[in-house]
Amino acid sequence: MAEPQMREVAFRGGGFVLSPRRGAAAVFFALLLALWELAIRAGWISPLFLPAPSAVTTALWELALAGTLGLHVGQSLARIAAGWSIGTIAGLGVGFAMGIWSMSRAIGVPAVSALFPIPKIALLPLLILWLGIGEPSKIATIALGVFFPTAIAAYSGIDGVPRNLIRMGQSFNLPWLAILRKIVLPGALPGILAGFRITASIALILLVAAEMIGAQYGIGAFILSAGNLMQTDQLLAGVVLLSVLGLAIGTVLSRLERWLLGWR
Amino acid sequence: MELVVEKIGHRYGELVALEGIDLAVREDEILALIGPSGCGKSTLLGIMGGILRPSAGRILVKGAPPADSLNPFTYIFQDFALLPWRSVEGNVALPLEHHGLGAAELRRRVADVLARTGLAEFRTAYPKQLSGGMRQRVGIARALAVNPAILLMDEPLSALDAQTRELLMEDFLALWLRARTTAVYVTHNLAEALRLADRVAVLSRRPGRLRDIVAIDIPQADRATPAAQAQLAGLHDRLWGLIKAEAQIAEREVIAAGASYG
Amino acid sequence: MRKFHIFAGAVAALAVIGLSPVAQAAEKIAVGALRLTSSGPIFIALEKGYFREQGLDAELKLFTAATQPPLAVVSGDVDFAVTGLTAGFYNLAGKGGVKIIGAQSREESGFPLIAYMATNQAWDKGFRSLKDFAGKSVAVTTTGSTFHYSLGLLAKKYGFDVNSVTMRQLNGLPAMQAAFKGGQVDAILVPSVGARALESEGAGKILGWVGDETPWQLGALFTSPKNIAERRPMVQAFVRAYQKAASEYHKAFNAKDAAGKVVKGPNYDEMLALLAKAMEQPPERIAIGLPYIDALGRLDVGDIYNQVAFWQGAGLVDKSVDAKAVLDLSFVEGHFNLPR
């Protein structure tokens, strides 16, 4: 009998595994911007429809030269900071109550479901009647938008804390407050931080709505005004500012997550 | 300190989990609680330590806990119940923090118990960085840190693989032989019960009733000798005889329940 | 090769269709407007078939905000549109997107369209005349809006500095009226229906009307430069239909007696019913705010020049925008107030 022939077993794995490609995004966006610029310079697209990246950059530069860039960004940041903080603190308070006490849950869940979907822009006239056209109504618009998702994230986060950890705390006679502070709060933190990502974006989205209320400065007011005046280069410049702000806030949140949730 | 279980019964809604359990845990012994799955062993343990309210009966203690015991009834959990956001020393420190010990004393106690359990070099590690066996060592260290009067152990080794279980059992025994803390040890593993327990309480399947209590009159330190092994083999058969038929029924019950979900 | 034959055949077929008299008889066009009485001639021309008379198959596209119709002309979604003239409009027109060819409504004495109102608080503190506007705060939609220009004209008329008036931009009438009711501002510019409501609620006092104070060319009819260049006969046909409808509107609603008082024209009821149907509103409500529209769509050209200059002065319209380039006066004869 002949020696059986030896063959190598064919490799069938591979694929479906994603590996990081550093710099790919940067190159892609650079190419996209270059193509965009070229399309307008070459006259394929009318600048009336889409201003060139250079025009948007110029608009930003002029804004910086005029000294209003800082005013727009500063006032918007102040509104976001105040509105987001108020909405978050209130949302965490209500969310924690809903996560801990059955009564709060029984009342809170239908209340949140009923009030969350109300478009905040529709409430602007009411907010103006209650709070005027100064900063309070603008801050309240953002705070309202932030409040509900925070409350939901907080009570879902608490629901996600393993019950056995709470039982463990009780078995060691930990005081109620210590269980809350040392077990429930850190256990709910991943869910709460995920909620922060959403509410930070909501705050940015609502900035435009908030600055509809008699704002002279602010990125949202700037975008609104550019839209009304059909200044498309400035409109896009404002959008770029908003994106940069979103990116910056996202980066800060990522750092915060890495710092607070290093144990995961 | 002795623990007396008096006419304990428990039900979850319509389901009767425990019925008429009378039992006494003697000072300085390890009492193993065995029985088929779902017989209410863990429920009974929860009732004994006061974290579950029984439907009937009561739990009594005879004698006062030692003055230096910070948490007389202390559990060791099957799933370790470690806080994933705290390091090893943070987890061990948790039950000490609300006793106003002072920072230095707290550190000393934590260091001491970590040294005793062989965890000193892992003190800054987080639970996710540890193997299952090491995690349960942290669970044991945390329990010992409070100088318990009674250790209540809920299948502490059943989440671990066989080798780890063996190693940890020996380590635990060594610790126990030094301190001789009264302990209730819930398990479904006969070998663990025979290795550790002074007495083995056998529960029947649902509703859990006490079927028998089997004493093992060989000191734990001497159980490795051939003569002791032979005697233990006999006890093993006797215990297995007590629970085998019911374990079979219980197993089929589980499968039937699973099938009805499928 | 086979593909080429099919293609050639299709081209030939298209050419035949394009040249046929049937297609010429009804040229498809789209017209953009807001559902407002100032767009009246468009609705009249559609309803009474004046576009069809001119061989145009007109489709109406309704918009909800004044910024939208000019954008629709630029994008080619509509061929013609009518809307109010804002700074944004001139920025768009200045880039060559649209050209004004005729008039829409005009602020005119005797036609109460937009009211200046003072809150009760401001009234009590002595704000009782339009002369006292300096230093007051006023609710407007946005800077660069028709309200803004009206204020500019008012400032010039009474000799106060328009920059001393604080314009609160509230981006919409509901928010403006809420701010006014809440006393957050001293004054408001508000369309007649809203003004009557605020007055009857006792929220404030009407100080005057824009039309009475400072007549100006509020709105315009415009099309794309491409239509003017490539479909001139169609544009002319459209303007003829528009003028016919504007005349009917003017006859019904803009007639004045010997004393200068506005009186109902002979076709008043017919036109009011027609507009009420188009607006989907009761006729009584429509009758409150019927603007002045020139019978032949003639523009106050001098005012257009003034508007561009005003916006440029306020920094809201690019300096490069030339009023002359924004207008094409060749479709309507007899425009007013032509600058020399």
List keywords for this structure.
heterotrimer; A: 264 residues; mainly alpha; MetI-like fold; flat; C: 340 residues; alpha/beta; D-Maltodextrin-Binding Protein, domain 2; 2 domains; five-stranded mixed β-sheet
Short description:
Chain A is mostly helical.
Describe the protein in words.
The complex is a heterotrimer of chains A (264), B (262) and C (340). Chain A is mainly α and 264 residues long. In chain A, helix 3 crosses helix 4, helix 5 crosses helix 6 and helix 8 packs parallel to helix 9. The longest helix of chain A has 35 residues. Chain B has a single domain, classed as P-loop containing nucleotide triphosphate hydrolases (Rossmann fold). In chain B, the strands form two sheets. In chain B, strands 5-6-7-3-8-9 form a six-stranded mixed β-sheet, sandwiched between helices. A three-stranded antiparallel β-sheet of chain B has the order 2-1-4, with helices on one face. In chain B, helix 3 crosses helix 4 and helix 4 packs parallel to helix 5. Chain B is globular. Chain C has two domains: 194 residues, Periplasmic binding protein-like II (D-Maltodextrin-Binding Protein, domain 2), CATH 3.40.190.10; 100 residues, D-Maltodextrin-Binding Protein, domain 2 (3-Layer(aba) Sandwich), CATH 3.40.190. In chain C, 46% of the residues lie in helices and 18% in strands. A five-stranded mixed β-sheet of chain C has the order 2-1-3-11-4. In chain C, strands 8-7-9-6-10 form a five-stranded mixed β-sheet. Chain C has a two-stranded antiparallel sheet with strand order 5-12. Chain C is globular and about 65 Å long. Chain C starts with a helix and ends in a 14-residue tail after the last helix.
